[in-house]
Amino acid sequence: MLTRFEVSNYKGFKNNIIWDLTTVRDYSFSKNLIKNKIAKNSIVYGKNASGKTSLCSAIVDITTHLLDVEKDLTPSYMYTYIGNNTPIATFQYDFIFGKKKVVYKYVKTDTRDLLLEILTVNGKTVIYHDFVDESKNFIKIPEAKNLRTKGLQKQLSVIKYIYNNTIIDDESVITLLLNFVKGMLYFRSLREANQYIGYKLGGDKLDDIILRNGRLEAFNEFLKIMELNYDLVPLKLSSGNLVIGARFENDKVIAFNEIASSGTRTLMLFFCWLLEFENLSFLIIDEFDAYYHYEVSRKILEIINCFDNMQSMVTTHNVTLLNTEQTRPECAFILDETGVRNLSSRTNRELRKNNNIEKLYREGEFEKDI
User: Fold this and answer.
1) Both ends of the chain: CA-CA distance in Å?
2) Is the pTM of this model over 0.85?
3) Kindly report the CA angle at 336 between 24 and 324, in degrees rounded to 5?
4) What is the DSSP annotation of 14-34?
5) Is 303 exposed, middle or buried (0-12, 13-18, 19+ CB in 10 A)?
6) Residue 209 DSSP symbol
7) Are strands 2-8 and 89-97 parallel, antiparallel or unpaired?
8) Residue 35 burial (CB < 10 Å; 0-12/13-18/19+)?
9) Residue 190: its pLDDT value, please?
10) 146: which residues sit within 8 A by CB, 6+ positions away?
11) 319 vs 37, 146, 334, CA distance in Å?
12) Which one, of 230, 227, 247, lies nearest residue 292 by Cα?
């Protein structure tokens, strides 16, 4: 699991940002949102331009050089904070895999080019690789002791190089790290097309995903749970393409995408990725409920929270979700110029299950310095 994330000088972040998922209290409610004393399901709030999207992109940046998956195509001149003269961004991920505390730190100049990688296990550095000054580089992983890493190009991570060119077992720290990163997915609900970062390479049309997997009936039932009553059927267009159609009372069938609202198309996008949730380690959805009614937002959040195999982070402006059935004070974070901290860290008030946390939020209780 991811326990802590730190980033500096990246996109909209002028200063260092630390996101700590271990500041957990002993609340008696919504215990399913905490796993092994780590926040499993997080909600991030923030005003417009506070950096929520930058935080989402930063967390999945690790996928761009460790895997051959869909990548963030941010131009090089926008990768680091434009107002700083230092053209490097620094990332640090703290993980816990069983009894292994793993810290992966790297420095980059843009999406592709690495300057430094450091991997630490239980406080001991096992990989140190400087792409510019190679005089101090070392690898203390037995499987890779004879692997030649001198002269690696900046676009090739030494971690990825070791993983692809050595025989390592399932309990190797390299394997544990890569398996987690392989399960990371970020998509935005503000975009109705199937655009994402991480997890896999290539994007299919949403109609094709549902029809190819034989999930049309399941999609129909999913929409009914969201109180949207459609009669969905396969529809063959004049072009020969097969799409999802909506059948009306008079038996006329219209292509679903032609009549679906923005919110309904966003639900379709969510449903298609829902088919992959069992394979994920970390799910990130930016503005996950931008097009949703507040009751639909709650239902979507309940679906996400019920998956025990993955951590999740969603960003939102919907303060109605700040109730003790949907979240906990340690799982709800506010991102502002002071950083990203959970509600329980932003108040001296003793929060209880019957507190109206939404009301406290609106009154500015969690914006105070403590």
Assistant:
1) 29
2) yes
3) 40
4) SS-EEEES------SS-GGGE
5) middle
6) H
7) antiparallel
8) middle
9) 64
10) none
11) 25, 55, 11
12) 227
CB 66 within 8 A of CB 160: yes
Does residue 255 sit in helix, strand or coil?
strand
Strands 17-20 and 2-8: antiparallel
Distance CA 116, CA 235 (A): 52
Is residue 210 within a helix (H) or strand (E), and if so which, with residue range? Answer: helix 206-212
Number of other residues whose CB lies within 10 A of the CB of residue 176:
18
Burial class (CB in 10 A: 0-12, 13-18, 19+), 283: buried
| Predicted pLDDT at 158 | 96
Alpha carbon separation from 340 to 23, 44, 62, 234, 284 (Å, rounded)? 12, 8, 19, 46, 16
In DSSP terms, 242 is beta-bridged to 236
> How far apart (Å, rounded) are the C-alpha atoms in residues 222 and 227?
9
* Token output for 216: 């049309």
- Compute, in degrees rounded to 10, the torsion defined by CA atoms 323, 347, 337, 334: -10
The per-residue pLDDT for range 207-258, each reduced to its tens digit, is: 999 999 999 999 999 999 999 999 999 999 988 889 999 999 999 999 999 9
Q: How far apart are CA 197 and CA 31, in angstroms?
A: 30
> What pLDDT shows up at residue 36?
94
pLDDT of the residue at 191: 58
Q: Is 264 helix (H, G, I), strand (E, B) or coil?
A: helix
Amino acid at 66: L
Mean pLDDT, contiguous 10-residue spans, the chain (370 residues): 96 91 86 94 92 94 94 84 89 97 97 96 97 94 87 93 92 96 90 77 88 96 96 92 94 93 92 96 93 92 96 94 86 89 88 83 79
CA distance 306 to 310: 9
**Which three-class secondary structure state does DSSP give residue 106?**
strand
For residue 96, list its beta bridge partners: 101
- Distance from C-alpha of 199 to C-alpha of 268, rounded to nearest angstrom: 19
54 three-state secondary structure: helix
Give the span between the Cα atoms of 147 and 162, in whole angstroms: 8
